[in-house]
Task: inverse folding
């Protein structure tokens, strides 16, 4: 365990600390600006992972109806078949379930590391400065930047924000981000589908509440990181979706009326033929997902097959 | 949907809600547990004093100060006291209340009775109410009674608040020349003047910002700096502020007094030389990072270590630099000077010995403790005592920089940040963060120390 912590510090906390301190010095000793720039850089660096998460998430939503059908058909009767059919469906749709979680998993250590970095760099006690001195790389430019100025606007970045402004902003920005990620609730057919929708809806308010609450007790520097990360995430996702997000939906706090009633499943418009080639997912303006046939079977305007040759 | 299905769905929905709330609660608990940045612990060193021919050692631990009998764990008193309800208000506050009573339009016998009540007033408890009732029953005018009761409330509220939140003790306790008063600076920004015979309050003042450095005592004045970029001079006897001087950065060290000059370092990277009226004589600002080590004056020079990894020798007369010595990390511990040699320990874990005139190394190579050194070394028993952060204690030969008699270091196994202290030549005191006072015999090679756990 100690070696894991050592490795965590060696690979993440220490490099981040030194980079942030160097950036702070570049920006005239302003650690707040360093946090903002650092967060944006991190967002850009992890963009391929994030984009993959968005794509996988959409693809999972698109095959939802087929998944439900498979579950209805095989659950409790033939688990082996259910598993093989599910895997086949994933293959056809080009879905990797891990792909939805991986970017989050990658970012989690960065969050934890960032928390340590803030505590290390802006700790308000003499002890924290002694600890920091042991973490700095032997580069005069970095050594001479310490102690840092922990003030930014009207916050002390090393202490929790007692004005409640940052916690509120973190909560609000995360709410918008969750709304962008969460699909528009539709009328679900099965109890499982309803439950999934309820869970998704619950996350749209639970996550902002949680992070808003955390922001009350963590150093304001970390809350600033979350805020900038959320805002950047909102902007990126908005443009990734092709500016199709309906801002009015921010005021929609639950599933649409009648969602609990049994109704017809919204099926994907075209189901692919079994093929070992991945299908693509197309999202239309209403947010409804359509699974396109695999590229190998898709035809261009002239009716000719395109894709693999 | 059948009734059973509806109930099941309702149950599921509720279960989901409960799950959500439980998760939220659990995460909130985790956040509360590990969210707060670590608080201050404190690293004030030991101060040996003599009170009424009795030897005591003032030892700080976290937010408490203990007056231990020499070589024992028995505390003559502790501050703040365990029982605040029987801890009298400061003699300064009592004097103010007595002065208020003196102004009452009542006879002297009644005044004496009221003053007896004042003498009984404790920081907490019902004694303040008893005094206020006595004031109400006195023959003073309504205005006088009202003013006096307000004053009682203010005194009790201030002193109770001051005692209730010391946060931590970092700075060295200053002791008056007669040994009768100890001046205790706190990270919360209070300065307490205590009677060293019983730990009672003489006065308490709010400096307005945290104090990391210690209190320098010089005759009837005390000097200290704060995190609010200020240096202060107070009257030792009454706690009256004489002047304040603004620095460009926080002051984290104890000012040094030499003749008619006060030397103070600051995190703005400067060494300030002031006269005793608070006017700047000169400024040394060649350090490219903060200075948190106490200035040490010896001969014609002042020595300070900086966060730019350098130890500086500065001319006492005009603040120009003599020389500088580069280490592998910050200098935070104050250097010691003896026999024309400056001994300085750095957070790079090495101890340096250099010539006072030239800054040239006097040892073949610096002594490596293999752990950062924040604790200021001391010279005692003919050797240099050094405590590394990891709790290893060394006694080095002043001439060679090697352990005296080749002795292996003493391993305390606890973190040491506090400056070492000595009573002259017999004993060296070590105060680690663990709440135990270690006492080393200064003579001969280093040997196992006596350990005295502090009262809990």
Result:
């Amino acid at each position: 365990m100690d070696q894991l912590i050592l490795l965590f510090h060696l690979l993440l906390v220490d490099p981040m600390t030194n980079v942030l301190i160097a950036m702070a010095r570049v920006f005239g000793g302003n650690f707040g600006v360093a946090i903002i720039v650092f967060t944006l850089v991190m967002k850009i660096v992890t963009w391929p992972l994030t984009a993959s998460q968005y794509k996988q998430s959409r693809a999972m939503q698109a095959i939802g109806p087929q998944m439900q059908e498979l579950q209805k058909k095989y659950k409790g009767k033939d688990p082996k078949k259910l598993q093989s059919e599910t895997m086949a469906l994933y293959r056809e749709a080009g879905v990797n379930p891990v792909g939805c979680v991986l970017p989050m998993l990658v970012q989690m250590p960065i969050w934890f590391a960032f928390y340590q970095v803030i505590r290390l760099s802006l700790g308000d006690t003499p002890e924290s400065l002694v600890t920091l001195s042991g973490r700095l790389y032997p580069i005069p430019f970095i050594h001479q930047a310490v102690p840092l100025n922990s003030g930014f606007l009207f916050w002390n970045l090393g202490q929790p924000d007692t004005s409640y402004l940052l916690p509120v902003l973190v909560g609000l920005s995360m709410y918008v981000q969750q709304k962008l990620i969460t699909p528009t609730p539709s009328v679900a057919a099965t109890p499982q589908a309803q439950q999934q929708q309820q869970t998704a809806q619950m996350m749209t308010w639970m996550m902002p509440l949680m992070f808003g609450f955390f922001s009350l007790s963590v150093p304001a520097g970390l809350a600033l990181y979350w805020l900038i990360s959320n805002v950047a995430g909102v902007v990126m996702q908005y443009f990734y979706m092709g500016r199709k997000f309906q801002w009015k939906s921010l005021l929609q706090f639950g599933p649409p009326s009648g969602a609990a009633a049994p109704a017809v499943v919204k099926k994907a418009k075209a189901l692919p033929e079994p093929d070992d080639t991945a299908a693509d997912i197309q999202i239309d303006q209403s947010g409804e997902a359509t699974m396109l046939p695999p590229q190998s079977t898709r035809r261009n305007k002239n009716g000719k097959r395109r894709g693999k040759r | 949907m059948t009734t059973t299905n509806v109930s099941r769905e309702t149950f599921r929905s509720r279960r989901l809600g409960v799950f959500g709330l439980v998760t939220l609660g659990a995460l909130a608990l985790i956040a509360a547990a590990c969210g707060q940045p670590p608080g201050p612990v404190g690293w004030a060193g030991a101060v040996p004093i003599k009170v009424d021919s009795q030897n005591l050692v003032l030892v700080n631990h976290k937010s408490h100060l203990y007056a231990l009998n020499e070589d024992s764990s028995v505390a003559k008193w502790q501050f703040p006291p365990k029982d605040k309800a029987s801890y009298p208000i400061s003699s300064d506050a009592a004097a103010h209340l007595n002065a208020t009573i003196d102004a009452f339009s009542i006879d002297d016998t009644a005044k004496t009775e009221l003053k007896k009540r004042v003498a009984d007033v404790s920081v907490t408890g019902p004694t303040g109410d008893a005094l206020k009732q006595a004031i109400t029953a006195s023959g003073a005018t309504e205005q006088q009674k009202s003013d006096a009761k307000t004053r009682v409330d203010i005194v009790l509220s201030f002193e109770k608040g001051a005692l209730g939140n010391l946060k931590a003790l970092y700075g060295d306790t200053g002791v008056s020349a007669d040994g009768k008063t100890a001046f205790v600076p706190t990270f919360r920004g209070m300065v307490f003047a205590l009677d060293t015979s019983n730990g009672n309050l003489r006065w308490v003042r709010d400096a307005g910002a945290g104090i990391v450095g210690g209190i320098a005592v010089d005759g009837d004045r005390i000097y200290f700096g704060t995190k609010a970029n200020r240096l202060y001079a107070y009257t030792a006897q009454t706690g009256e502020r004489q002047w304040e001087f603004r620095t460009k950065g926080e002051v984290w060290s104890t000012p040094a007094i030499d003749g008619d000059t006060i030397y103070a370092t600051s995190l703005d990277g400067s060494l300030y030389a002031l006269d005793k009226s608070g006017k700047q004589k000169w400024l040394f600002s060649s350090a490219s990072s903060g200075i948190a080590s106490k200035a040490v004056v010896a001969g014609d020079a002042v020595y300070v270590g900086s966060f730019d990894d350098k130890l500086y020798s500065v001319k006492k007369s005009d603040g120009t630099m003599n020389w500088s010595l580069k280490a592998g990390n910050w200098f935070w511990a104050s250097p010691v000077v003896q026999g024309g040699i400056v001994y300085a320990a750095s957070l790079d874990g090495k101890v340096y010995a250099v010539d006072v005139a030239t800054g040239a190394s006097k040892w073949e190579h610096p002594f490596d403790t293999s752990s950062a050194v924040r604790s200021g070394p001391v010279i005692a028993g003919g050797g240099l005592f050094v405590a590394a952060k990891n709790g290893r204690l060394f006694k080095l030969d002043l001439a060679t920089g090697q352990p005296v008699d080749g002795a292996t270091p003493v391993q305390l196994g606890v973190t040491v940040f506090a400056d070492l202290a000595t009573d002259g030549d017999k004993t060296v005191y070590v105060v680690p963060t663990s709440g135990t006072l270690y006492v080393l015999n200064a003579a001969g090679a280093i040997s196992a120390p006596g350990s005295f756990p502090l009262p809990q």
Summary: The first strand of chain A starts at residue 151 and ends at 152. Residues 256-309 of chain A have pLDDT under 50 and may be disordered. Chain A is about 60% helix and 5% strand.
